[in-house]
Structure formats: C-alpha cells, structure tokens
Give the backbone structure.
Amino acid sequence: MIERALEIHPASGASLFWGGWVDIARAKPARAITRFEQALRMNPRSAVRPQALTGIGLGLLACGEVARARTALREAVQYLPHAPVTLAALVVAFTLNGEEQEAAPYAIRLRALGGTRSIDAIIRDPRMRAVLDTALDRYARPQADKASLHTTPRISGESSR
C-alpha cells in the first residue's frame, strides 16, 4: 500500500513516514532512513518528528553508523522520554559506542516501563537484541533487586506477620 501511495503522491509526508517504518520492519534500513529524512524535509516541525528520528536512529544502527544514530536518538528521547523503542535504541547506540554508563539511566527507565516486550517487533536484529538484553541485565536489574530488598521499619506493637 505504501508503494502505491507514493506512486500516486510521491511527496506525501505521511506515506514517507509510514513507509520508513515498514522499511525498518522489513530490514531495509537505508531506504527507511531516506524516507524518514524526506518526510522531515517536507515538514521539519511535524508532530511525528521524534518518531521519525527514532526510525532514523534505528536505521543508522542497522547500517553501522552508531555515532549518527546516537545523535538522532538523543534528540528523539527529549520528546519521547518514555517511548520503549526510542529508549531501547538509545541504550543500544550508547552501548555500541562504548558509553555504557550513558546507557544506564535509559536502561533503567526502559525496565521500569515493563521491559522490552513492546519492542520485540521493531528490534529484531540478533546483535542489537543481544546488546540491549546485556545492557538491561547489567544496569536495570541491580536497581530492581535493590528496590525489592527495601524494608520499612515496623511500628511498635505491629504483628510480625
């Protein structure tokens, strides 16, 4: 449908945007990047700019352009601070760039949102998944473990049950 829509109206920002996401899902990152960038050139202030930047970041990660991906994803996360896909991609970008400590707060935030279930359909590349899972294990789990061990003092006379 996207191909047909772009045949009819090649300058449709919405078709380019959704076409970019279809390309991400179909493992065509170079074309996805091009489509997202074209959509943003048509409307730089688009309401979906952060989602397009997330798509660009994912495409750049898939193409091995980690530093550029990190730049796009850092901008996206400013507008989407609780979007699982954006957070996951940023964790991967920081980790691949050797900035593990920078990844930590985003990994913790992602784990607090309920983990990675919602990103399974988007980040399917085994290498990226392994990087993400390792970062989540390294940075998010220790925080959760510490939180579960927190105890509150008993009020005198309170039952020990």
